[in-house]
TrEMBL record, chains A, B:
GO terms of molecular function: L-glutamate N-acetyltransferase activity; L-glutamate N-acetyltransferase activity, acting on acetyl-L-ornithine as donor
Chief localization: cytoplasm
Keywords: Acyltransferase, Amino-acid biosynthesis, Arginine biosynthesis, Autocatalytic cleavage, Cytoplasm, Multifunctional enzyme, Transferase
Gene responsible for this protein: argJ
Gene Ontology cellular component annotations, sorted alphabetically: cytoplasm
EC assignment: 2.3.1.35, 2.3.1.1
ATP-binding found in the keyword field: no
tRNA processing among keywords: no
Full protein name: Arginine biosynthesis bifunctional protein ArgJ
Location(s) in or outside the cell: Cytoplasm
């Protein structure tokens, strides 16, 4: 793969201090699946009774680990659970061999950790179509199990990175019935990132208790406006998975609690935006706010059409306030639009209204705005009350460099 | 705009020798709409009784000239007709001013040429959202009208270029009832190219006579498998137009003639592929053949998902036989696919079958194939008899260079 020699200019200044989440322990190891000189496997073990929810890629060619997780998730919470993730190889499009690898790994994890195999979840991320050397992972399981620690979540975040240039974590803390409840999550992802799925690999943990079915419903709902509203390159991964585990160690049931939902949403939004900030080759972080659409669904279609347009993304890379390309993207999206009722703003700058450029528009002012690192493009369709916000990055030479040479 | 200093490596060796088409005369001029030192306006005048058909962008933000053409096309053939095209400015998203420009230009063309204003069609291509300096065009109309020649089609092809690196023409000749019938067409386009529309500016002329309604039906049908099966960057223009004029000067009615349809299709296919060969920054021409899909529509969805994937396109640019990304694109397309019944070939090389890499696959052999300039990616879904072929190019640094700096 391409060597990533520098951290994204959009990266947060530092990895956040994540709180210990009672009921979950982590370990990571260097199994040499593909990368040398770094960790590439993480193991998380969850205490008995932990409720687990998951959202996965909708790809028709999804990987063997994704299919295995989806088959297991419907079952009721019971004994302990485990999550094992490797980077470097996605175990996707590997036929029956891929399924066999998942069986071998989950059986071995079950044996070493004492977790029932039906509660062992795996994920693999990296190159598609090459056999996963699962024996390299299996030989590391004793070491991983012996190293489990409730303080090792940051190391776990590093072990699941592929083309990521920084590790991604987010946290929130609230009180329910006077008791502290914590949420901590980690994520990886920077390319093959597009919505309509549970993008990338994301693991979120809370010490709250939560009803299993309600947890799944909550996760699915919040995914729609967080991970399903980001895009780097419009490409959808075969492997990507988002899992949320509620251990109950805090002694509080958060089922249906509004403050918990808000806190969880903030963690999911933070992690999803960090993925965009690590978009392959990204130099600009762009928020696209669509309002006044005929429906929320239409607003999201428009937002994604703008966010995925190579011409919009290259204009942003060139710091060119080329609002004509925003008009183009709205026009092609397929959702309802009326040229003459459109309003477009770059930040606070009114660019276009009434079907044409605003009479007060200053190209110099807009060009100065485009030099910023965090940009907002706001579009009002003038048709109804539908709205959506999506996040993306620019399209640069860096993206070409990383992806024209990924496997060499 | 970016300076285009070199011709696409995929360009044909020379502009084809286009035959004279009885009943149509051309002229071009340098009006200075935006570019300096080159022609930027073309005029074509068609003899009375010419049948004219057109297909236009489906963009919801389409330009004033497109709206004007669409309003005029339904009318029966009658007197002479005229087509006036400028490059450098698209007169799109220019509000009421844009409509006024079209009215001014078509009225002036009518006055100078004697063609009824209802038979004057225009198109504008270039930057979106800036007022069209229509007076610069109008002052050139007398010069254009005086220079009309039946031999000036190549100059017309040059006058409509924007980021194109070569002029595009194609021709075919057949006999009907022992009489020669000729077809000649010109096109421009290299970016903001995606299907589901009449892509770019394309003008095709024949000296056959053809029933007006049947001509429109024929053009619409053939567009689906030619211009609507190409993509450079998945972006859909606000301006683009395809018009076909049948002058009848050959004294032959070709309505419903199968040989004529085949010949017209070959001209349309040739021009559409030339647009891909001039794709912004392109270094590889890629044909994507999809077979075995559940339906033809599904096959086209898969083909376009592969053709529009930035990860597939950058892998091709890097000469990397990264078939995993082809699997990914099929998986995300939304059309029916079964991982385990997929077959993928790069040229004649069997890459993947039965849900995994072929046992005889040689990465070295595939890597050698990818060094070629014209590539074929063949996908069989193994589900049914649906098929489609689409054409695209790779995604390179050249695309970023051209589009990050288009307006500066």
């Amino acid at each position: 793969m391409a060597t990533i020699s520098h951290v994204s200019p959009l990266a947060p200044a530092y990895f956040p201090e994540l709180p210990l989440i009672g009921g979950v322990r982590f370990a990571s190891a260097a199994a040499g699946v593909r990368y040398k000189g770094r960790t590439d496997v993480m193991l998380a073990v969850l205490q008995p009774g932990t409720a687990i929810a998951g959202v996965f890629t909708k790809s028709a060619t999804r990987s063997a680990p994704v299919l295995d997780c989806q088959a297991k998730l419907g079952q009721p919470a019971g004994g302990p659970a485990a999550i094992l993730v490797n980077s470097g190889n996605s175990n996707a499009f590997t036929g029956h061999y891929g399924q066999a690898s998942v069986s071998e790994i989950t059986a071995a994890v079950a044996k070493v950790t004492g977790v029932d195999q039906s509660r062992v979840f795996t994920a693999s991320t990296g190159v598609i179509g090459e056999p996963l050397p699962h024996e390299k992972i299996i030989t590391k399981l004793e070491e991983l199990n012996g190293a489990l620690s409730d303080a090792a979540i940051e190391d776990a975040a590093r072990a699941i990175m592929t083309t990521d240039t920084f590790a991604k974590g987010a946290t929130a803390e609230i009180e329910i019935d006077g008791k502290p409840v914590k949420i901590a999550g980690i994520a990886k992802g920077s390319g093959m990132i597009a919505p309509d799925m549970a993008t990338m690999l994301v693991y979120i943990f809370t010490d709250a208790a939560y009803d299993q079915a309600a947890l799944q419903a909550l996760l699915s709902k919040l995914t729609e406006t967080t991970f399903n509203c980001i895009t780097v390159d419009s490409d959808t991964s075969t492997s990507d998975s988002l899992m949320l585990a509620a251990t109950g160690a805090a002694g509080v049931d958060a089922t249906g609690n509004a403050a918990f939902e808000t806190a969880l949403n903030s963690v999911m939004l933070d992690l999803s935006q960090q993925v965009v900030r690590d978009g392959e080759g990204a130099t600009k972080f762009v928020e696209i706010r669509v309002t006044g659409a005929a429906s929320d669904a239409d607003a999201k279609i428009h937002g994604l059409a703008i966010a995925n347009s190579p011409l919009v993304k290259t204009a942003i890379a060139g710091e060119d306030p080329n609002w004509g390309r925003v008009v183009m993207a709205i026009g092609k999206s397929g959702a309802a639009a009326d040229r003459d009722s459109l309003t477009i703003r770059f930040g606070d700058i009114l660019v276009a209204e009434n079907g044409w450029v605003s009479p007060n528009y200053s190209e110099d002012q807009a060009a100065a705005y485009m030099k910023g690192q965090d940009l907002v493009i706001a579009v009002d369709l003038g048709l109804g009350s539908g709205k959506a916000t999506v996040w993306t990055c620019d399209l640069t030479h860096g993206y070409i460099e990383i992806n024209a040479d990924y496997r060499s």
